[in-house]
Structure formats: structure tokens, C-alpha cells
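RECORD TYPE: inverse folding
INPUT: C-alpha cells
STRUCTURE:
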């Protein structure tokens, strides 16, 4: 039996030499049963831990097939296999899999090694968030933001900002929001046409619908409401509810709602409408910037020191040059 257990980062470091045996303790992040052209069922899955994630495929004749399919998303599995690649991406062959039971999951430090966290200290991010809220000059907008954040509570602080694309880890939504607020404050002096209170309120609320859209502890999946409505509509509903409660004037409420409805940028990316106010354009561009830089930062954190480029990042449509400047 291969020993010791390796992390995803350590596995990827072995990736240049295919066929290396390994054992690892991983979370099933995503699992989908698909049908091949010959009619046979196979499993497409993402496995990960605190250091990274990789994709692989299990066919019906694989000894681990039934174990993984029955375990489902969010299960912790001990896997054994051999390193391999597919179309230039690390994609190992899984040969064995065993599911950890509840008693094993209670081992000290085990879950800490499996759950990826935002790299910045949680307490610092939370304190910054509160300071950004308190710093909104307009009273009713500040009360609206505080009302939404009070309702979403711990979910806002814990939720990832995405399933896989950017800030896709615990506290990721908090980190993404705080990063956007930092950029907002840095850029506001350059764009006096943008109302500071409205822009900051829009940034702090733009993704709050994700607290309802996403669910799960060790893996993130879309909830029923997330599938049927999506975070843009869910966030709009939260902002409208608390804006009315805070007696926000109709014009500002409509503009705040528009920021949330348009922040995805393009209709094919999930926006309900295109940005059509100065604040909505401003917030949408900052959101796009931080989402892409979040992908860059994560790729750099997880980079193999021996490799020049990362794997292809879907959100960038390219691999990332991760080798530092001399």
C-alpha cells in the first residue's frame, strides 16, 4: 500500500512522471454520471483537499466505481492509484477507494487538511467588512446593507464565492467582497461620476444571493433555489426587502437593485440586464477584475515550483505563467 498519504499539491508535483503509485485522503467535490458513446456509464469527478483539486474519470469496470458513486459529493475517501495525465492536465488513475465513516472524520486535524480556506485571516476580513459597512455615508443605504448581512449572517462569512471558478473555498465570498471593496475605495477618486455610497453598497451586496444559491459543507453545490432562481435574483430580493425596510428612497433602491441584476456583466454570464448606470458599470468591472485576479492568486498559491505554467484555467481560457521573475 502506498505510504504516506499525499496532498493534491504533492500529487501534482509527481505528475510529470506518469505511473507513480500514490495514496491520498480527499473530498469528492463534484460527481456526475455520464454516458459514453458506446452506451456505458462513467463517472466524472473532482477530488480535492486544502491544497488543490483535480479531475479524473472512473469507468464502470473500475473497482472504485460503485464506492465513489454510492458515496456521492461531500464524502471523504481514501484513494489509491497511479499518476497520469489527459490532454495536458493532471488526471490520475484511481484504482481503489474507501469511504471514511463518521468516527474517522472526527480525527484531530483531519477536516482542517481537507477544507481549503481563504488565505487571509478570517478575523481581519470580517473586521474590514464591518468597517466598509460602517463607512457608507448614506444612512438608508448603510442600513440596507447591514440588514442583508444580518439576515445572511454566518452563511455570508462561510460561503465560497463560486463552485469552482474563483474564490471557491470557505470564506471565499467574504474575501471576494472585501477585495472588491478595497478596489472600490482605491478607484473612487478617479471617477467622481460614481456615487460612493451606492457603489460600496452595491459591492457589499452584489453576491449575497450566493448564501442561498450554494449549500454543502465539504463540497459546494447549488441548492433548489439556486438552480431555479440563481444568485442574481436571490440577491435582488434580499436588497429590495431590506431597502424597503430601511425606507431607502425609490430612486436609490432601483439603482441598487440594478447593480445586483447587472453585476455579472453579460447576459450569457448570468446577468439579468446589462449595466446601465455609472455605479453598475463600475461594480461590474471591479467584480470581473477581482474574479480573474482571484483565479490568478489561487493558481500561484497552488503552483508546482518545478513547472513554468499552471494547467489551463477555464476562467482565463489559458494556462497561467506561474514561474516568478528572476
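DESIGNED SEQUENCE:
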Amino acid at each position: 500500500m502506498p505510504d504516506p498519504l499525499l496532498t493534491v499539491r504533492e500529487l501534482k508535483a509527481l505528475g510529470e512522471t506518469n505511473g507513480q503509485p500514490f495514496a491520498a485522503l480527499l473530498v469528492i467535490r463534484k460527481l456526475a454520471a455520464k454516458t459514453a458513446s458506446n452506451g456505458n456509464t462513467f463517472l466524472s469527478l473532482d477530488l480535492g483537499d486544502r491544497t488543490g483539486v483535480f479531475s479524473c474519470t472512473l469507468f464502470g469496470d473500475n473497482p472504485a466505481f460503485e464506492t465513489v458513486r454510492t458515496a456521492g459529493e461531500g464524502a471523504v475517501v481514501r484513494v489509491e492509484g497511479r499518476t497520469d495525465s489527459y490532454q495536458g492536465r493532471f488526471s490520475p488513475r484511481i484504482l481503489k477507494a474507501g469511504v471514511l465513516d463518521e468516527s474517522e472524520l472526527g480525527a484531530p486535524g483531519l477536516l482542517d487538511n481537507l477544507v481549503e480556506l481563504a488565505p487571509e485571516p478570517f478575523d481581519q476580513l470580517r473586521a474590514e467588512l464591518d468597517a466598509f459597512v460602517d463607512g457608507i455615508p448614506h444612512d438608508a443605504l448603510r442600513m440596507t446593507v447591514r440588514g442583508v448581512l444580518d439576515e445572511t449572517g454566518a452563511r455570508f462569512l462561510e460561503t465560497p464565492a463560486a463552485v469552482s471558478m474563483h474564490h471557491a473555498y470557505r470564506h471565499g465570498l467574504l474575501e471576494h467582497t472585501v477585495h472588491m471593496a478595497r478596489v472600490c475605495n482605491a478607484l473612487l477618486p478617479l471617477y467622481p461620476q460614481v456615487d460612493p455610497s451606492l457603489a460600496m453598497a452595491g459591492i457589499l451586496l452584489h453576491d449575497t444571493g450566493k448564501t442561498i444559491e450554494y449549500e454543502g459543507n465539504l463540497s459546494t453545490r447549488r441548492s433548489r433555489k439556486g438552480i431555479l432562481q440563481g444568485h442574481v435574483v436571490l440577491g435582488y430580493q434580499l436588497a429590495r426587502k431590506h431597502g424597503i425596510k430601511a425606507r431607502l428612497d425609490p430612486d436609490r433602491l432601483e439603482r441598487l437593485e440594478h447593480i445586483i441584476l447587472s453585476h455579472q456583466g453579460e447576459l450569457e454570464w448570468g446577468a439579468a440586464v446589462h449595466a446601465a448606470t455609472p455605479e453598475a458599470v463600475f461594480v461590474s468591472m471591479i467584480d470581473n477584475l477581482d474574479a480573474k485576479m482571484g483565479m490568478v492568486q489561487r493558481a500561484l498559491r497552488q503552483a508546482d515550483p518545478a513547472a513554468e505554467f499552471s494547467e489551463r484555467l477555464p476562467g482565463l481560457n489559458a494556462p497561467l505563467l506561474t514561474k516568478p521573475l528572476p
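NOTES: The chain has two domains: 8-111, 122-300.
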